[in-house]
Amino acid sequence: MSKFKNSEKVLNIKGLSQAVVIPFENQKMIMLSGQIPFNKQGELVGNDVKTQTIQIFENIKNILETCGANLNDIVKLGIFTSDISQIAGYREARDQFINLDEPPTSTLLEVKGLFRSDIFIEIEVIAMLKTV
After folding, report:
1. How far is the C-alpha of 89 from the C-alpha of 87, rounded, in Å?
2. What is the pLDDT of residues 91-110, one digit of tens each?
3. What pTM did the predictor assign?
4. What are the strands, taking DSSP E only, across the chain?
5. Are 78 and 123 in contact (CB under 8 A)?
6. pLDDT digits (tens, 9 = 90+) for 22-79
7. Cα Rg for the chain, rounded, in angstroms?
8. For residues 55 and 47, what is the distance between their CA atoms, to the nearest angstrom?
9. How far apart are CA 5 and CA 19, in angstroms?
10. Are 95 and 101 in contact (CB under 8 A)?
C-alpha cells in the first residue's frame, strides 16, 4: 500500500504531500513532489540558480531520509528551469549531492516560468529503495 510522507525538516505546504512511497516488488519507489528553494520557515533561499539548487537538494535529502532512503537512491531527476543559460550553476550545485560515478537519469526542461518569478528552478525526484 502506498504511503504519503512529509519531512518535518522541510516546509509543509497544505494540500500537498512531499513524497509517496510505493511498494514495488522487492523495492520501494519513492516519488517526490517538485521541490522548490524554500527553507523550513517558508523563506526563499538564493537569488541565483546555484544557491536555489543547493537548498532544493537539501530539501530532497531530508525528504528521502524521512522515507528511509538517501541521495544515492535517486534514479531520475526532472529539472524545470526558467533560464537554461544558468544551467552551469545547477550542475555545479547538483554535483555536490549526486553520485557522479553512477548519476541518475534526468530530464531538463526550460519553462516559460515557475509559480513565482523569483524561483528559477524546481526539481522532481524518483528514487528506488531495496527492501530485501
Report:
1. 5
2. 999 999 999 999 999 999 99
3. 0.94
4. 3-5, 19-24, 27-35, 74-81, 105-110, 121-130
5. yes
6. 998 899 999 999 999 999 999 999 999 999 999 999 999 999 999 999 999 999 999 9
7. 14
8. 11
9. 5
10. no
Say what angle helices 49-66 and 87-94 make with each other, to 10 degrees: 40
Angle at 97 between CA 95 and CA 100, to 5 degrees: 50
Taking CA atoms, 55 is separated from 1, 22, 84, 128, in Å, by 31, 26, 19, 22
Alpha-carbon distance 14 to 106, whole Å? 28
3-state secondary structure 17-48: CCEEEEEECCEEEEEEEEECCECCCCCECCCC
